[in-house]
Amino acid sequence: MREIFRRFARNRPALAGVAVLLAVAALALLAPALYPHSPFEMVGKPFEPPLASTLLGTDQLGRDVTAAVAHGARVTLLIGLVATFIAILLGVTLGGIAGYFGGWVDTLLMRLTEIFQTIPFFLFAILLVAVLTPSVGSVVFAIAVVSWPPMARLVRGEFLSMRNREFVQACVAMGMGHWRIILRHILPNSLSAIIVTGSLMVATAILIESGLSFLGLTDPNVMSWGFIIGSGRTVLRTAWWVIVMPGIAILLTVMAINLVGEGLNDALNPRLKHL
Amino acid sequence: MALPVVVVDSLTVDLPPQGERPHAVEDISLELRANEILCVVGESGSGKSILARSIMGLFPSPQVRASAGRVLLNGENLLAASPARMREIRGTRVAMIFQEPMTALNPVLSIGRQIEEVIEVHGAPAPAQRRRRVLDILAAVHLPDPERIAHAYPHQLSGGQRQRAMIAMALVLGPECLIADEPTTALDVTTQAQILKLIREVQRDRGTAVMFITHDFGVVTEIADRIAVMQSGRLVELGEAQQVLGAPAHPYTRALLEAVPGLRPPPARADFHARPTLLAVDSLHKSFRSGGRLFGGGVRVVHAVKEVTLCIRQGETLGVVGESGSGKSTLARCVSRLVEPDAGKIMVGATDFTALSGGALRAFRKKVQLVFQDPYGSLDPRQKVGAMIAEGPLLHGEDPGRARARAAELLELVGLDSRAAGRYSHEFSGGQRQRIGIARALALEPDLLIADEPVSALDVSVQAQVLRLLADIRDRLGLTMLFITHDLRVAAQVCDTIAVMRAGEIVEQGPSERIFAAPRHPYTRELFSAVPGQHWTAGAAPPDPSPVR
Asked: Which domains are seen in chain A, by residue range?
């Protein structure tokens, strides 16, 4: 564990990613304290450029873009994390069962996974949100539903190879039950792959959320980064900052997550890198 | 005396800074003469492969590089040669054959094409001429029907044929020096014997200087003219084969030679006929299906175990020997019910093991425990050693305090410190891990211990220790053992009875002494005559190495 931490700490880009993520998380946590008013509240004249009366300017309705970005961080991170969590849970469960038990269970679950993968994932997410009426819940649900198949395939592969490893065979020979083998022996050994893929899935989830909100498929009463961009896209030529500021926030966050994910990968699977 | 082709002059090769030792090879000087086979022997990590690769200029990573000394090929220093010059030399003057021909050959090119490519990159004669040479060299390594082999892809050949093709590829441009890095380690003994004979033959015919890297003293006695013994990067002994094998000067060489198990089984421990039967396997059958498509068709059936019947009496050790693919591992897995047999019956004591299922099966499993081959894959990397050993007893309802105490006792029993319980398996060496695996199997106090190639992945000196430990524990606890191995020398050391398997069937079965002294089945005889270095036992002078065997 200490060794993993040490390897991670040596990776400068990953540390930079952690710093950015911590900053975004701090912004999200402190948003209610820094900007106690609702981000939907009008605070000044429309189209004020950055640094005029507010830090990042105002939008077409005179709302403070700074407050919107700060409160948006809360919503965006929350949706990204919860959706990824559900997707990981689904993916690990289905993939794990398929990989461990094999046979017809595997065939059935993998065909199911393939059905989900044949539908272009973004169109599928749009469809789900549109059918379920846009809300935070439906967006989270849609992202989770389109994100789990790759995780399921990964976990299935891990479990499949682990299933025939001799230490697992030794467990079977000891008289251990399936669930104990899965939870105590196979899952801990697959964890590094799950963590790495899971961390990168958060970045994808944020991008999907942004894309959905850009199209207006989001809860109109909740300020997320994608929502700001979506509502500001009509005024791009008169007030570029309305779109650029949340855009930079998305860019930085997604990049930071990717850097951290790569750092985790190098720290958890050191042999892969040096071979 | 023949002229030296390659002279290695006080060569030192550095390892990356964070490695366990600073040099892979340290201050080595030796020469390789024309028309001789120099065997470089050593255990894993002794630097023998790095020595071989430094002649080819092929280091495994940029951080591994020669820091001192010279490697002279007919007077030219290869360490100072430019990359372009090295490319010219490789293949034409120095060639190499590898351990695993399946990975050393390109799977998507035909054998003929790959050999032709070697000729092509070193100046290209006309295509017709190239093809002629390919067929000639394939015939020279005694591949049947060179025309067909040239058009075949690596996966269509057997292991032995692939290794022959590799040798053909190495020899096609007539190099002065051939480096063979464990070329027979991945092969079965009968195939190994043929490949050794071939290497000897082509070496004689062409007067090639061969550097033969191996860890197996049996192979050394078959093929070496001279022997170089390496230990952790240093050359500890160098001399004529007869002298090194017959009167080793260095203590390490002596220790290595003594660790090689003899081929003569010790006298029978006891008469087991009167004892009650512990394991009775009756017409066991297992086949595997592969290649089945979604809509049927193309199913291949491999009968891994066919109608196997055997019995082991209380306290007896039955050795199942056979080559790879003979079904011996499948048999072990069926008997332990890790694999479900298709037909047949397995009686353990008075219980029909095959009839059990669910909870009854899980409860009964403790009576049959396994020791596995791979010391790295058989222990859970995320579990502490103590927890690993105590897990079985805990599972079967043992009190946690007692299970922990028992784990500590078992660690002592297998020759480890009881403090090992608090560490992870990756902190131990291969031999120590194998001891942990044995302790884990013993924790459940099994009636039957199945050992599936338990020492095959270990160096010879460690192998001897683990074998002694197994025999010692067996005698002390009165264990009954099913011992799977491909190595007849190992089988001779521990087995009371031996069953020889071929293609899923037991072809001969009997007391070790009888089988080793007078094998009856032709296959058994073939197997025994293929064991390298069988006329040689530690301490005795080797046979005269001059005649072609």
From this structure: 2-274 (1.10.3720.10)
